[in-house]
Specification:
Elements lengths: L1 E3 L6 H12 L8 H22 L11 H12 L5 H10 L4 H22 L7 H10 L5 E2 L2 E10 L9 H17 L4 H8 L10 E6 L5 H7 L11 E2 L3 E11 L2 E2 L2 H27 L4 E3 L1
Antiparallel strand pairs: 1-8, 2-7, 3-4, 3-6, 5-6
């Protein structure tokens, strides 16, 4: 009689699944999360066993340099050796066990890379079809580089009642009209937003990112212009448009490298999935 072999959960596979699913170590998970991670880890380990039992895995050798690179990549995530060793022990690992698990993972990755290399190459016709079928992927909307000054409304503080906040912002705006070149200095002095430390700069934004009230005003301004006082749920603002970056649609020529990469990655993944689905389950006699 044959049946599917029980799959033992290796500590490294369990840790990897926990980090991928929840960005936490297994010991930090609640029981329902841990159950989910255990299922994921078993599935991954079983698939890896099938990969390593395939004909494509024959002759795959991982060099000491490649293994050391993988080991150092993990080691480099920790500030010191003590922290690294403690993390290994907490996850039922030691250096030898980690190296063994990484060697296995490198072999699996090498086999999958071999399989992916069989994927067909993307041709110019396919690139053209993709480009014309997905125009939204190659259109960049108009953007604005902006900065602002904000004074918040908070009735718990006398200087931030709605009336007082509006009065303070009105005074800032009057100063700006006299000395528009002082915008960054006024932001540093008066703005109640963390951006004050950068002169009120918000960076480059597209429509729909800011509060609707600010959005409407910003995208109506000319380059270099600043607004009157604008009220949002946060408080009162003055916003300035530093630069207008026009909308742009990438040409087929400019878009080709991006399309080629997207489609080739898709072909590679499909090739790997098809191959994995064809692998027989590993069985044992009972």
């Amino acid at each position: 009689m044959n049946q599917t072999a029980d799959v033992k959960i290796e500590p490294y596979t369990l840790l990897r699944a926990a980090l991928n699913l929840f960005k936490k170590a297994p010991a930090e998970l609640e029981q329902p999360q841990l159950k989910q991670v255990e299922i994921q880890a078993r599935n991954e380990f079983e698939i890896e066993n099938r990969v390593l039992s395939s004909d494509e895995a024959t002759g795959v050798v991982i060099s000491d340099i490649e293994l050391e690179r993988a080991y150092q990549d993990v080691r480099g995530r920790f500030e010191d050796e003590d922290g690294f060793i403690a993390a290994l022990e907490a996850n039922h690992l030691d250096e030898q066990a980690l190296r063994s698990a990484l060697h296995r993972q490198c072999r699996v990755n090498t086999v999958l890379e071999r399989v992916a290399a069989r994927a067909p190459k993307v041709n110019e016709v396919e690139i053209g079809i993709f480009y014309h079928s997905h125009p939204e992927k190659f259109h960049k909307p108009e953007q604005r580089k902006a900065r602002h000054i904000v004074i918040s409304i908070n009735p718990d503080f006398p200087e931030n009642t709605r009336e007082k906040a509006l009065e303070r912002m009105t005074e800032v705006l009057e100063t700006l009209h006299r000395k528009p070149h002082k915008f960054a200095d006024l932001a540093l002095k008066h703005s109640e937003c963390p951006t004050a430390m950068q002169g009120g700069e918000l960076g480059t934004v597209a429509a729909g990112v800011l509060y609707p009230e600010l959005d409407a005003v910003l995208f109506a301004l000319k380059e270099g212009g600043f607004s009157d006082v604008v009220e949002t749920e946060m408080g009162f603002h003055v916003i300035q448009c530093l630069k207008i970056i026009p909308a742009e649609t990438l040409s087929l020529k400019k878009a080709t490298p991006k399309i080629q990469q997207i489609m080739q990655d898709r072909y590679r993944r499909n090739c790997q999935r098809t191959w994995l689905a064809s692998l027989p389950a590993i069985k044992r006699s009972v």
